[in-house]
Specification:
The strands form four sheets. Strands 1-6-10-9-8-7-2-3-4-5 form a ten-stranded antiparallel β-sheet, with helices on one face. It has an eight-stranded antiparallel β-sheet with strand order 14-13-12-18-19-20-21-17. A two-stranded antiparallel sheet has the order 11-16. A hairpin with a 2-residue loop joins strand 12 (186-193) and strand 13 (196-202). 22% of the residues lie in helices and 31% in strands. The chain has 381 residues and is an alpha+beta fold.
Length: 381
């Protein structure tokens, strides 16, 4: 064998020895030795997620996949908000580790990466209930930046550079908005209470409010009336349940909001034990069918009107389907706007003051001829 070939073999042998040393060091690396930033969860097939558990024990939030969407079991199976579920998954996938800290489970309690001591626990489950993957977030590193974390199915504990905020209550994973209506889209509001009913509309100009058939001698409290007329500008719920879980409720109040596009929202409100409950539905009241005249070319304006009508019909249908079968607990301040009695919106007109002979002294007789006649109050009568 030539000296050249021997030289090549020597170089290769040296490289192999060096690689073996590196591998040995990596395999026997002491706890805390840096391996460089890497993601805690190395890939996740989201299609395999059949359930999610956030937290532990009695405070755990359970979310299950039902058909093509998730449902929050702790809220009577109410549909989960897809945005919140995606946000939770992405936050877990975004956790990066700086270094491996320990693989000894006896250290877990001190690092607070046991389920009962953890700051956050998120487990993604398979259809059979087995853990697909998950995270357990322990305490923050004292005097430095970082947090102890581990995978739910492994003993290895890592130091993560940062851990995002994770929502921990069941209501956090549902869309709490019932409806949001622009004030300028409201045509009228009709409120029915045990004391009667009344109708409010926007003033022809400005942001004022008028009441149909305003009682004689009364004037409208503008601020309160605006709150009633715009009560659907942002209507959210605090809690949700099924009718059977809440028992019998007496829906003594009805709030009907009609929009300019003929959509009508109907909200029934009940009060019980200091709480306000609501059921709702929507209907598109313009029943004239949308048709296309054969052989006739319609203008862009007409086509846009028909498209807007079809979209409004669909929105009303989706609204009713989404909220059918659910009872919402709403904030008291919002319930007050939806159930305001007519008497609470009215006040007496201020009395028109006028000069009185009994209260004002008569002018001297010598000056009476020169005194001009009193001006007529334009607001009188």
């Amino acid at each position: 064998m030539s000296n050249k070939n021997l030289g090549i073999l020597a170089v290769v042998a040296a490289i192999m020895v060096l690689w073996a040393v590196v591998q040995s060091r990596l395999a026997h690396r002491s706890p805390g030795e840096s391996s460089g930033p890497s993601y805690l969860i190395q890939g996740l097939e989201t299609a395999q997620i059949a359930g999610i558990v956030v937290g532990h024990g009695d405070d755990a939030v359970t979310i299950q996949r039902r058909d093509q969407q998730f449902a929050v079991i702790d809220k009577a199976g109410y549909p989960a908000d897809p945005k919140r579920i995606n946000d939770l998954i992405n936050k877990c996938l975004d956790i990066k580790t700086l270094e491996s800290y320990t693989s000894n489970p006896r250290n877990h309690e001190d690092l607070e990466v046991t389920e009962d001591k953890a700051q956050n626990v998120v487990k993604f489950l398979k259809a059979d209930g087995a853990v697909l993957t998950g995270i357990i977030v322990g305490k923050a590193l004292e005097g430095a930046k970082g947090t102890y974390v581990r995978l739910a199915s492994q003993d290895n504990v890592y130091l993560a550079e940062s851990v995002p905020y994770i929502r921990t209550t069941a209501i956090d994973y549902v869309n709490q908005e019932i409806v949001s209506v622009e004030r300028t889209d409201v045509n009228s509001v009709r409120v029915t209470t045990p004391d009667g009913f009344y109708t409010l509309k926007g003033a022809p100009s400005g942001d004022g409010v008028v009441m149909a058939n305003l009682p004689q001698g009364k004037t409208l409290k503008e601020s309160d009336a605006r709150n009633v007329l715009g009560a659907l500008s942002s209507l959210r719920f605090d809690d949700v349940n099924t009718p059977s879980a809440l028992g019998e409720l007496s829906y003594d109040y009805l709030y009907v909001c009609r929009l300019n596009d003929s959509t009508e929202y109907r909200l029934r409100i009940a009060r019980k034990d200091g709480k306000a409950y609501l059921t709702c539905e929507a209907e598109f009241t313009d029943k004239a069918p949308v048709t296309m005249k054969p052989g006739q070319v319609e203008s862009q304006e007409e086509l846009k009107k028909k498209e807007a009508k079809l979209q409004a019909q669909e929105r009303a249908q989706r609204f009713t389907l989404r909220h059918r079968g659910w009872v919402y607990e709403i904030p008291e301040w919002k319930a007050n706007s939806l159930t305001k009695p007519q008497a609470d919106l009215l006040e007496d007109k201020p009395a028109v003051s006028s000069p009185s002979d009994a209260d004002s002294p008569s002018p001297p007789a010598t000056e009476a001829a020169d005194e001009p006649a009193p001006a007529t109050d334009p607001n009188a009568g």
